[in-house]
Amino acid sequence: MTDKKLISILNTSANQEVFFGPQGFKQVATQNELNEAQLGFGMSELGQAANSDEVSSEEKGCWQTSWQVFARDTELGDPYFVDTNQAKLPVYTGFLAEAGWEVELVATSLVSYIACMQLLFDHGQQTQAQFFPDPSSVIDEAILQQLQQQLIEISGGQKFWQLFMQCYLDWLIED
Q1: CA pair distance 11, 55, nearest whole angstrom
Q2: How many structural domains are present in the chain?
Q3: Which of 16, 116, 125, 168 is in the most buried spot, having the most CB atoms within 10 Å?
Q4: Can you give the residue range of the structural domain that contains 103?
């Protein structure tokens, strides 16, 4: 998968930023942004591979050379990335834990991830993250349950979307 092809797929998305309640996704739109997104993950600021030569990059918990960051979580900064070794470009997110990278499937393909972003945007229509629910916030539990089911069906990533929706419900209850 070339970077040009990846950018081409990403640019089929109607929105480079999607917010739903306090949570948001900000994806790249240009080659320069794609390069910058990889800094600190698979690439050093000098443009060199960030993995140590002493440790196999394919070892569990290590950042994989085939992982390409294309978006970030706007709240926590966690990366969203595709595995370029797989034809459908599955989308993952992860965080760096004591034992290395803890990774979770978000969507079985980049195309399904983009469809999920559109679905979230259509339901929220937010231009930024919200600190507190307002009259435009989706509060109907039946609608939220249906949205969660649609996200799971479109993405093929059940655990991520269940946690995403649970965080949203917790946000609603807290305020």
Answers
A1: 35
A2: 1
A3: 116
A4: 1-175
